[in-house]
Amino acid sequence: MVADDRERLLRMLTAATFIIFFQAYMVAPIIPTLATRFGASVQTVGFVVPAYLIPYGIATLVYGLLADRLGAQRVMFASLAAFAVLTALTATATSIDQIVVWRVLTGLGASGVVPLALVLVGRLFPYAQRGRPLGWLFGAMAGGMAVGTPLGSILVRFIGWRGLFLVAGAAGGVSLLLFVPYRRMIAAAMQPVGGSLGDLFRGYRSLLGTARGQRTYGYVLVNSMFQSGVFTWLGVYFERRYGLGPVGIGLALLGYGVPGFLLGPLIGRAADKWGRARLLPIGLALGALAAAVLLVDFPLALAPIVVMALSLGYDMTQPLFGGIVTALGGKRPGQAMGLNVFALFVGFGLGSIVFGELLHAGFGPALWAFAAVELSLAVGSLWLFRSEMPHAVTGRSAGAR
Fold it and tell me: Where are the alpha helices (DSSP H) in 253-399?
């Protein structure tokens, strides 16, 4: 494959990832708006977020298997088409219950794009060079959060919540059309892999049967619970603490995703050069610090900086975990990355639910609990991920550990 073609495909994958995460994160900051529109509590409306994220995560296990057996290009195209159609149809909902149903269906349909994009990076780039392209993809995730969060809050005043879903669905349809010229390139990069149902379960047992797999997937799950739990409810936090409306909430959340969008490839290169073992504890500690700062009174003007620190904690962890996962899959990369995205999105959904339940005791206890867990992860990572160093430092292949 020509290097220029590989880079163009990477840019297309990045664009599709951005669109999917844009629509996923445009919902959280409009929870107060939807609660007012439908006369429901914010806790009830809050289920709109996990209604998308948890089915998304569960379905990735199926899409990874289908991609290994049928070919990545078929699965990606079908999933992107489902994303476009179902996102647009969400605009027809007339109640919170109907929105929840459409979000469940969208999560199930849309989850075959991002995990397979990550798998393709693993196929197209050697392990020692994956930091940069993975940085682009995770940067697109962060960029979707960065743009979707404030833009969703602002645009809802002008085009309404229905308009948001129509715009996101249309963007998915355009992305699908632009992907058509790359279908043969994707098919050549990922050939179907045969196997029985027994092979499937043996594959999962193999992925989770090593210490490296257990700690990586475990950290992906718990770290995503922390990030989603805090971020999902930030809109409500700023509304209650500072009395902000939709536009104010959007501006306060403006910093989330910016570090990954701007620095994602640089963070990836740093991981390739200096080792994930050195960056992971810093990222986890940054997340814990950001959550702790939310416990104290600070000037509203500093809100984007605090939110940016929370985002940087994500940008310095989940892409790095994704890089490790690309070395775990062997002949079944779709299965390995499917399990990774399963842990990521199920963690996203569970985190928003758990934080919402803790809110019955107030934001203080919820933030303390989540910050304490994240700090514990940071301390544990100093030991658990100490071997995740570049080949030049350790003298051994990263894929062999």
Answer: 258-274, 276-293, 303-315, 318-325, 333-358, 363-384, 391-394
Range of the domain at 56: 3-400
Q: What is the DSSP string of 335-368?
A: HHHHHHHHHHHHHHHHHHHHHHHHGGG-HHHHHH
Copy the structure tokens of residue 334. 């779709």
Q: How far is CA 226 from CA 6, 11, 58, 276, in A?
A: 34, 29, 19, 20
CATH of the domain at 46: 1.20.1250.20
Predicted TM-score (pTM) of this structure: 0.73
Alpha-carbon gap, residue 126 to 124, rounded angstroms: 7
352: closest CA among 56, 144, 49?
49
For residue 106, give the amino acid letter: T
Encode 116-163 in three state secondary structure.
Answer: HHHHHHHHHCCHHHCHHHHHHHHHHHHHHHHHHHHHHHHHHHHHHHHH
Q: What is the total count of domains within the chain?
A: 1
pLDDT by 10s per residue, the chain, length 401: 566 777 888 888 888 999 998 888 788 777 877 888 888 887 788 888 888 888 888 888 777 677 777 777 788 889 999 999 999 999 999 888 899 999 999 999 988 888 788 778 777 877 667 777 877 887 787 778 767 777 777 788 788 888 989 999 999 999 998 888 877 777 776 666 655 566 667 777 888 888 999 999 999 999 999 998 898 788 889 888 888 876 787 778 777 777 776 777 788 788 888 889 999 999 999 999 999 999 998 888 888 899 899 989 988 998 899 888 877 866 666 678 778 888 888 888 889 889 988 998 999 999 999 999 999 999 999 999 999 987 534 444 444 44
Give the separation between CA 314 and CA 360, rounded to whole angstroms.
Answer: 26
**Two tokens, residue 100:** 């929840």
- Sequence-separated (6 or more) residues with CB below 8 Å from residue 34: 40, 45, 48, 96, 99, 161
Q: Report yes or no: 390 and 327 within 8 Å, Cβ to Cβ.
A: no
Find how far residue 368's CA is from the centre of its chain: 23
